[in-house]
Design a protein that fits this description.
The chain is an alpha/beta fold. It has two domains: 7-76 and 333-448, Aspartate Aminotransferase, domain 1; 80-329, Aspartate Aminotransferase, domain 2 (3-Layer(aba) Sandwich), CATH 3.40.640. It has helices at residues 7-13, 16-26, 80-92, 101-113, 126-141, 178-181, 192-201, 223-236, 255-260, 286-289, 298-303, 316-329, 333-356, 377-380, 389-394, 398-409, 429-448; strands at 47-51, 54-57, 62-65, 119-123, 146-149, 184-187, 206-209, 239-243, 266-269, 280-284, 360-365, 368-373, 412-413, 420-422. It has a seven-stranded mixed β-sheet, sandwiched between helices. A hairpin with a 2-residue loop joins β11 (360-365) and β12 (368-373). The structure holds 4'-deoxy-4'-aminopyridoxal-5'-phosphate (PMP). Residues 70, 125-127, 130, 153-155, 210, 243, 245-246, 270 line the site of 4'-deoxy-4'-aminopyridoxal-5'-phosphate.
């Protein structure tokens, strides 16, 4: 074996089994993956098992998992209460194709936690939930156009697929009809005046946004903007939809609504709501949610009702995981500790940057942590909340890919594409120290290679 030189070579040489599996995977799965975000060069590693805050790969490496099941595992891997609940339920039925009491317990818990959850409709994914929210808003208002914000992601369906990633003018995917893109009005992040102008140009059904910021706090929200948007949408009779797929139950039991003290009309929940299993929920104002209800009037039920049906919606296995998770998350103790952990990671990582004299900033909200190296907070405008949103969305580019590899080589994983880590409650203070050491070693490595 030749001595490794680049981080790419070093990563690859230490992972021969993952490399072989990736070769096989490429003939089975496009890019060898099941999710765009899991693909990276030279090849992704393959995992054998996970526990607590760690996961192990086929070549024997262990990683602190700062990705936490794409943010779904707020309690970490295999929390005993969740595993027990799933195991118990699996023995008595995965799917009844019928109502069951656990659905009600699950809905009660969601209602108890989430400020605007007057009614709950369980679904399976975040994508399905934001699509349903937009449908409800359109049915309610009788209007078609929606407003979304630059850099905000709402899943893979077409209805909100404009301006998701930099460059914002290119839709997030090929294959989206122009006609559909024509129903989306794009506003700049945190730009209340811009949204008001769009509303004045023509009636809109809804404003949908990630209240915790574009791409999970990559571009953080301004609380005044959220409050202003609430007032503006109420005044104009426009439905305000919060996409809390990531922030729900994570920032607080009531998610960003509780954290920022702003209520939406409809809220999209996924990830944490189902404790790591595929499950999600649309919640919101009773009058909006009741648009899905059967009334017994055949004309209205067939022609004016919002239809929704998902094979896996509210099924007992998922409900069991959701109930076990929310029973723990409802007190807010876990979130308070996680938010403190987030503050500690940010403080320690930023201290390393300062000590090493490396330009960069580690920022975020609560347990959502975003890494940016190569530019200072002042250059990004983050020191005065006048940030260059495109710059934040564009991210670190090739440097970000190298940073991720260097972090993996030092035993830490996170969402490479966004440069974001979602912490989980299994993380100990010792894990934060280990992560900080990994951060230091990764930066030193990149500097050695003259990238910093
Ligand atoms: N909205 C946001 C804010 C998300 O982060 C995601 C997924 N990461 C989605 C929607 C889509 O959720 P899902 O992957 O469950 O369809």
């Amino acid at each position: 074996m030749s001595p490794a030189t680049t981080v790419e070579d070093e990563y690859a040489q230490a992972r021969p089994r993952s490399q072989a599996l990736h070769e096989r995977a490429r003939s089975l799965l496009p890019s060898g993956v099941s999710h765009d975000g899991r693909f990276f060069m030279p090849f992704p590693f393959f995992v054998t098992h996970a526990e607590g805050t760690r996961k192990w790969d086929v070549d024997g490496h262990v990683y602190i998992d700062g990705w936490s099941g794409h943010g779904a595992l707020v309690l970490g891997h295999n929390h005993p209460a969740v595993v027990e609940a799933i195991t118990r339920q699996a023995r008595i039925g995965l799917h009844y194709g019928a109502c069951h009491e656990l659905e009600l317990r699950w809905a009660d818990l969601v209602k108890e936690c989430v400020p605007n959850a007057e009614r709950v409709r369980f679904t399976t994914t975040g994508t399905e939930t934001t699509a349903l929210a937009i449908r409800v808003a359109r049915a309610h208002t009788g209007r078609t156009p929606i407003i979304k914000l630059e850099g905000h992601f709402h899943g893979i369906h077409d209805a909100a697929a404009a301006a998701v990633k930099y460059p914002f003018r290119t839709p997030m995917s090929a294959g989206i009809p122009e006609e559909t893109l024509g129903t989306i009005r794009v506003a700049r992040h945190n730009d209340l005046a811009g949204i008001e102008k769009l509303m004045d140009e023509g009636e809109v059904a809804a404003v949908i946004l990630e209240p915790a910021g574009a791409h999970s706090a990559v571009a953080p929200p301004s609380p005044e903007f959220l409050r202003g948007l609430r007032a503006l949408t109420s005044a104009k009779g426009v439905v305000l939809i919060f996409d809390e797929v990531v922030s729900g139950f994570r920032l607080a039991p009531g998610g960003a609504q509780e954290y920022f003290g702003v209520r939406a009309d409809l809220t999209c929940l996924a990830k944490a709501v189902a404790g790591g299993l595929p499950g999600a929920a649309l919640v919101g104002r009773a009058d909006l949610m009741e648009r899905m209800a059967f009334t017994g009037d055949p004309g209205r039920d067939r022609g004016a009702r919002v239809a929704d049906q998902g094979t896996y919606s509210g099924t007992p296995l998922v409900a069991a995981a959701g109930v076990a998770t929310l029973e723990i998350l409802k007190t807010g103790d876990v979130q308070r500790r996680l938010n403190e952990l987030g503050d500690r990671v940010r403080a320690q990582f930023n201290a390393v940057l300062r000590e090493r004299g490396i330009p960069g900033i580690v920022y975020g909200i609560g347990s959502i942590v975003r890494f940016f190296v190569g530019k200072t907070a002042a250059e990004l405008g983050l020191d005065r909340s006048a940030y260059d949103h495109e710059e934040l969305d564009r991210g670190m580019g090739p440097l970000g890919a190298k940073l991720h590899l260097a972090m993996l080589m030092n035993g830490v994983d996170y969402n490479r594409g966004l440069g974001v880590s979602w912490l989980n409650a299994a993380m100990t203070d010792g894990d934060v120290e280990t992560m900080t050491e990994a951060w230091d070693r990764a930066l030193v490595r990149l500097r050695r290679d003259a990238f910093l």
